[in-house]
Amino acid sequence: MKNIGVLISGGGTNLQALIDKQGSVIKSGRIVCVCSNSAGAYGLERAKKAGIPTMVIRKNADCGGDAEEFSRRICSYMKDMQVDIIVLAGFMAIFGGELLKEYSGRIINIHPSLIPSFCGKGMYGLKVHEAALDYGVKVTGATVHLVNEVVDGGKILIQKAVYIQDGDTPEVLQKRVMEEAEWIILPEAVEMVCSGRV
Ligand code: GAR
Asked: If you measure from the C-alpha of residue 36 to the centroid of ligand 1, how many angstroms do you get, rounded to a whole number?
C-alpha cells in the first residue's frame, strides 16, 4: 500500500474524487495527508470530513515568497507523513527545488486540457477553458501526467477527450471536463502509479 499526499489550492473536487474512489478504483494506495497553499481552500474541509490530516503552507505568508523554502517546507511535510506519491489535484503553484528532486517520477498532476494544447505557465483553472473557447476547438479534455521541471511537460499517463457544445461558457465547459474526464482519469492514473504500472 502506497501513502498518497495530495496538494490542493481550491475547491478540491478532484480531491473528493480521490477520496470517493479509495478502495474501489484506488486499491494500491491511501490518502495520508492533504496540503494546501491557501488557508481558505474548501478542499481542506473535504479532507477534514474524511478524517484526513491537513496542513497549510503558503509561499508568501509562511516562506517569505522564497520558492526554494516553499518547496523545502512541502517536501519536509510530505516526508514527515511518510508520503510515497504526491498528487497535484488543482494545485495552482509551480515548484521546483527539493520537492521535485526528492519525489522525481512520483508526482502526478491533472491538467484540464489535452496537453500539449492550452498548457504551460499561466494556464490554469478557468483560463484553460477560456483559451480553448477563444481558439474555437471542438474537442478538449483532461490530461494526467508526471511532473518534471517543464510546466505540464512530463510523461502523459492518461488523456480523455470531451466535446465542446454550442453556447459553452468557460464555467459550463469546466464542469463538463471535470465530470466527464478529470474525476474519472485522476483516480485511474493514481492507481496506475501506486500499483507500479508506470
Ligand atoms: C481542475 O479543473 C484542475 O484540472 C485544474 O484546476 C481545477 C481545480 O479544481 N488544474 C489546473 O489548471 C492545473 N494547471 P478542484 O480544486 O475542484 O479539483
From this structure: 13
Residues with CB under 6 A from ligand 1: 8, 10-14, 43, 89-90, 110-112, 124-125, 128, 178, 182
Could you read off the pLDDT of 4-63 as tens digits, one per residue? 999 999 999 999 999 999 999 999 999 999 999 999 999 999 999 999 999 999 999 999
- Name which residue sits closest to atom 9 of ligand 1, judged by CA: 90
Tell me the Cα Rg of the chain.
16
Could you report the per-residue pLDDT of 147-164, keeping only the tens digit for each? 999 999 999 999 999 999
Q: Give per-residue pLDDT as tens, 93-114.
A: 988 899 999 999 999 999 999 9
Closest CA to 178 of 131, 138, 108, 125: 125
Q: Which of 21, 72, 73, 111 is catalytic?
A: 111
Residue 163 and residue 140: Cα distance in Å, rounded? 6
Residues 6+ apart with CB under 8 A from 127: none
Active site residue 129: no
